[in-house]
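Session log. Operator J.P. requested a structure for one protein chain; no other inputs attached. Running the standard single-chain path with token output.
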Amino acid sequence: MRVSLLFVPGLLALVACSENTLVTKDGTIDDVNDDAAPDIVVTPESHDFSALSVDGVTTETKEFSVTNEGDASLQITDVELDDANAPFTISAIGSVLVEPGGTTAFSVTFQPVTAEAVSATVYVNSNDPDEPSVPVALTGSGIAPQIELDPVNYDFGTPNIGCTNQVPLIIRNIGNSDLVVSELNYVTAASTEISVDANEAVNGALPWTIPAGTELSVSMDYSPLDEYADDGYLTVVSNDPNQPEAQAHQSGQGVIAGENEDVFEQPLRGETDILWVLDWSCSMDDDIAQVQSNFDVYIGTLAGLDADYHVAAVTQDNGCILGDIDAIDNTLTADEQQADWDAMSAGPGGAYTEMAFTLMEAALSSTNIGHGGCNEEFYREDAKLNMVGVTDEVEQSANTWDYYVALFQAYKADPDDVVFHAIAGDYPSGCASAEPGNNLYQAVVATGGTFLSICATDWGSNMTELAESAAADLTSFALTQEPVPDTIEVYIDGVRTTAGWTFDATDTLVVFDDDHVPGGGTTIEISYIVAGDCSS
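Structure written below.
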């Protein structure tokens, strides 16, 4: 028997055909493509934006296409930037659903904020099974100045109070267009000990223009006056669009090298020894007569200044004072002083009569002013020494004028206690029959003395001025160590005074104004921080 199975009711027949063709029981065919999928393509894949001015206005925008080259719907789930701080802005995408063969788009806008080159990546995320996230590379740069300060932080350490420490601060333009610096502002916490020197001698006055790739420097100066810590901030104002106010920080703390106090007792009367050397050559007769006849004016002026004076005149080669006593002083009556002066100033002179310095040296030699010497009672070690040369000739001593200045200054602990004066021919040309007072003139200038013309008709004024110049200087006080000037404090009888005095740094003196001179018998205390070593 042959059996043929042509049709079996109720059964589904599978017929050999394509692998995705399904034949149902009623004979229809259902086509189902399990490989269908979206396929995303983004163009362009990258973009380099133009270099743009960093002005807050200029921008550039680029459009990017998103195409679905697949055979299923493309769903865009996100378009995102990998760096939220990058200067790129992404627009909304045209459509989040793209059918096969369809296209949509989004755009990116670039607006630079600095001159630096920047880069970022846009990621287009979708349901593409092969490329769920497509990267798009972005690059761009700005055109702008860019400031850089160096060093941004600086510690001066612990220098001695009174020292000035300096460090250059560089203002550099690392951008690609001109940097214009308009202001330098320095702020400290209640301190002026750190400051900025704009170095205008080199940089010129503000504003400064610093081309791209160049720099200039200012000086940060630190001069501590106390032991407190100091901090400050320099703000540099410029046209850098990203950092219009750049800051640099400085710090430091001073240390005390030492402290000192000098104490002085103001004498009731200042001691002054005044030695006159008179040229007794023939041409000087009238001038000697003037000196003798106006001596009462001279002595009267000294007495009015309440000076403790010794006055003597020398005319002889041996340097000994003529007369019965070694010195005229304020214990004698006016008549006694005049008589002694006439005896001392009497001539004639010896071979050295036109050599004032030589006669001064002889008069003040150790032999003459030492114990038993002819001038023993004249010279006082602690008194101010004034020497007056009177001549109508050029000074003719063997050595130079500066030799004699140094010689006599060595007699005193304070060189300022030695002062030369002169009545001589006008410098540099002379006057009437008098030759210029060369050598004497230079010594007078070097020691701060008084130079008067021997051709003057009013000898009374001459003698008054010489007396005032010769009175002991009670206005200045020499400090024993070098001070930090801003730390000097002056006390008179225990009361601090801040007015009426100045500090003379050249000679290390505290000098009182004429109307603030401490009275006789007062105690002057001057305290200060000692200047330390500033070499390190």
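Operator note: DSSP finds nine helices and 35 strands in the chain.
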